[in-house]
Design goal:
The protein has helices at 3-10, 15-35, 37-41, 58-62, 74-78, 86-113, 115-134, 139-166, 173-197, 201-219, 226-231, 235-248, 276-279, 281-308, 315-324, 329-336, 343-361, 379-404, 410-427, 441-457, 483-498; strands at residues 47-49, 65-67. The protein is mainly α. The radius of gyration is 24 Å and the shape is globular.
Length: 499
């Protein structure tokens, strides 16, 4: 039998897999706190200057600055105001640069050396560099720590997502993928609560980093991904891993025996990696489309956040709303992607098209609409609808991408797509500046991007109820046997074992 049938035998989503999934999902709260840390750590409180003369130097300015809020941040400690204010945004940008590098680096490494060692290494250094942020003696060390945290945080989170998927049966990938992204959004809201009660930035950075220590200790004992072991030709180790899962699920009497995986590496054969995404026409075509879809999701998501999410008032409430506004998107996409009449491809396309139409529609709205009279027909409402839709599409594309790549290059594929995603995030802040040309221009850009990404996504193959490819050769084998047939085969094998 293959891994899908074996997972059916030992339990596709048994007791042990549920425990693992819960732990991996809760890890996203830690990932989210690191991702939005700069929002509060770099907060600029209100201040006044106690002098009538204009200070000629920054050192002179510092002597006359009085901050009027009872909080501390890197702004209040190192006086990052006026001509020094750019350093706050620079630190945030360095984090996302690190994410880009980590996504590209960690994917191929985990495909080559295994999921578990790369994941644990990334999590360990994430914790180390996170505490470096909290004790940074100056801005330069702080900025360097944010770059390093972004590098290991982005790579570690990517491998964690793949591990979450590979420990359970394919029929549960939509559930686990959606839960991962849902908890990330909740993690943003949770960080705002922590920040509300902890106003010292160094204490906040340390407290937000402490869960990483707990998660590292919890994950030390996890087994290697059976799917990865099987794809590498290490069949015996994969069988032992599946046997361990069966025992933890309470199925001690089950015996797992896997057939050799087609296309596993032979002695002297080069390892699979990023170049395979270019070498094989099928993977090349899929990668090109997925990179654009990921880019669009990131561009529209972060662009709408910057363009329509700049809320006045309590900063902690605003951060909470920033996360919670995404929550309704996840049950919606979770419902549709498992329906035979919609599936992954059509649902992703529909949400991207809806996001695009919502953005384009803002150009037809009168700009003078009163808030009370035009509550459902104003620019902000349409923009938030677009954000909900693109959040759902973002969630689906994670699951869809994991299913489109074979196990041997899954992390490499996700890494390249995540790199494209980060490029969209880097460009997103520049789009709102197009307002100088026309007030509707940013929404036109987001609308065209969303609609083009949606239509292009239709060129990808549907993966609902299709078997997962373990090797690249599986992509070229006619998939006449659907996943339900494989389940029946697995059930038959289970009956034979019991008899």
């Amino acid at each position: 039998m293959d891994v899908d049938a074996a997972l059916l035998l030992v339990g596709e989503f048994g007791r042990y897999q549920k425990q693992l999934t819960l732990t991996f999902v809760l890890l996203q709260i830690y990932v989210a706190c690191q991702s939005v840390l700069i929002v509060l750590v770099g907060a600029q409180p209100e201040y006044r200057i106690n002098t009538l003369e204009v200070p000629s130097t920054h050192e002179e300015l510092v002597k006359h600055v009085v901050f009027e809020e009872d909080i501390t941040s890197i702004v209040t400690e190192w006086y990052l105001i006026r001509q020094e204010a750019y350093k706050v945004n620079l630190a945030g940008s360095l984090f996302f640069v690190g994410l880009l590098i980590g996504n590209v680096l960690f994917g191929p490494l985990s495909d080559r050396f295994g999921r578990k060692p790369i994941f644990l290494t990334g999590l360990f250094f994430d914790v180390v560099f996170g505490f470096m942020t909290a004790v940074a003696p100056n801005y330069e060390v702080f900025a360097a720590s944010r770059l390093l945290v972004g590098l290991v945080n982005g790579g570690m989170a990517l491998v964690a997502f793949v591990l979450t998927q590979e420990f359970v049966g394919k029929s549960y990938w939509a559930l686990t993928g959606s839960l991962t992204n849902l908890v990330f959004a909740i993690g943003i809201a949770a960080f705002s609560v922590i920040g509300y009660y902890i106003r010292d930035w160094r204490t906040l950075a340390a407290v937000a980093n402490c869960p990483g220590v707990v998660f590292f200790l919890l994950f030390i004992t996890i087994p290697e991904s059976p799917r990865w072991l099987y794809s590498q030709g290490r069949t015996q180790e994969a069988e032992e891993g599946l046997q361990y899962i069966a025992q933890r699920n309470g199925n001690e009497k089950i015996f797992v025996q896997l057939k050799p995986c087609a296309g596993t590496m032979r002695v002297g054969q080069p390892a699979h990696g990023v170049m395979d995404l270019v070498r094989y026409p099928t993977l090349r075509w899929r990668t090109a489309i997925l990179m654009y879809v990921w880019y669009v999701c990131s561009l529209v998501y972060y662009g709408l956040t910057l363009n329509a999410g700049e809320l006045k008032g309590n900063r902690y409430l605003n951060i909470a709303l920033y996360g919670l506004v995404e929550v309704p998107a996840f049950p919606l996409c979770l419902y549709f992607i498992d329906k035979s009449w919609s599936g992954r491809r059509k649902t992703m396309t529909a949400f991207l098209l809806f996001a695009g139409v919502a953005c384009i529609s803002t150009m037809f709205l009168p700009r003078h609409l009163d808030f009370d009279m035009g509550f459902f027909l104003n620019v902000t409402s349409f923009a938030l609808c677009g954000k909900l839709a693109v959040s759902a599409a973002f969630n689906i594309v994670y699951v869809f991408t994991a299913e489109l790549y074979p196990t041997v290059v899954r992390n490499a594929g996700l890494g390249i797509c995540s790199m494209s995603c980060r490029i969209g995030g880097i460009l997103a802040p520049f789009v709102p500046s197009l307002k100088t040309l026309n007030p509707s221009m940013p929404f036109i850009v987001f609308g065209i991007a969303g609609m083009s990404g949606g239509f292009l996504g239709l060129l990808l193959p549907e993966t609902l109820n299709k078997p997962i490819a373990e090797s690249i050769e599986d992509l070229h084998t006619p998939a006449k046997q659907r996943l339900e047939d494989k389940r029946k085969k697995g059930v038959g094998s289970q009956e034979n074992v019991k008899s």
